[in-house]
Amino acid sequence: MTETCCIAEKKPVHEPHVLEVKNLHVQYRKTLALRGIDFSVKCGTRVALLGANGAGKSTLLKAIAGLIHKNAGEIMWRGGKVAKWSREFAYLPQREEVDWSFPITVRGMVEMGRYPQVGWWRKYTERDHQAVEAALASLDLLDLQDRQICELSGGQQQRAFLARAVAQEAHVLLLDEPFTGLDRTATAGLASLLEKMSEEGRLVIASHHDLSSVRQLFHQALLLAGEQIAFGTVDVVVNEQNLARVFPTNF
Ligand code: ATP
After folding, report:
1. pTM for this structure?
2. Domain-embedded: residue 154
3. How far does the centroid of ligand 1 lie from the alpha carbon of residue 52, in Å?
4. In the chain, how long is the greatest CA-to-CA distance?
């Protein structure tokens, strides 16, 4: 069977790309933040990371993005080490970790998505220009392209980030609490954009705190409490028994 896979592929491919995390351990000085994390997911999937504060959700996203050192284990993409494919990964930190007052327009931010493609030596070409135009159009940002990012609402800022990832031709979106702080309209808008991103073949992995919306927003869930409590389709793993292990004080 032929499946379309991963947005940057120009033609359908037979096998979906797979992200494999094998026996991952991450330690910060004295804190063992993650131990024995083991799962694999295909592109085209939306995965929720669920867990209490300090469970290791951000640590896992940063480890997949290659931003922090892992103490043991492997992270593989397309059957090879993830570092080889770093330009295919886009990471969005939690809102409060981003300097939204940085003086840059929406277009400037989206153009930054081309830097990994352009590199130091190659000129910004017509293809780069077209990729930026297409990303702005697909995220409905053409009217806002000359605004400073500090002048955007939270939902518009999330859209600008996604446009940067689209311009980058990222296959994997790593999002730390993307829905936090958004009102109901912006939440619905972001939900449909993430649906579109995954339908186009991208893999979306996001930490998430609102248990009431997990089923609606994600296909799969990884429940964390420093270790992996459960991983699988949302319908199977998000149940009272597993949640009680992840959020012991709430159940
Ligand atoms: P939250 O939901 O509050 O964002 P989280 O599930 O994302 O939490 P992490 O931020 O990954 O959890 O933290 C996992 C553990 O690692 C926690 O015990 C935290 O205190 C610790 N930790 C995180 N970052 C660092 C760091 N830079 N240095 C030392 N310890 C850290």
Report:
1. 0.91
2. no
3. 11
4. 57
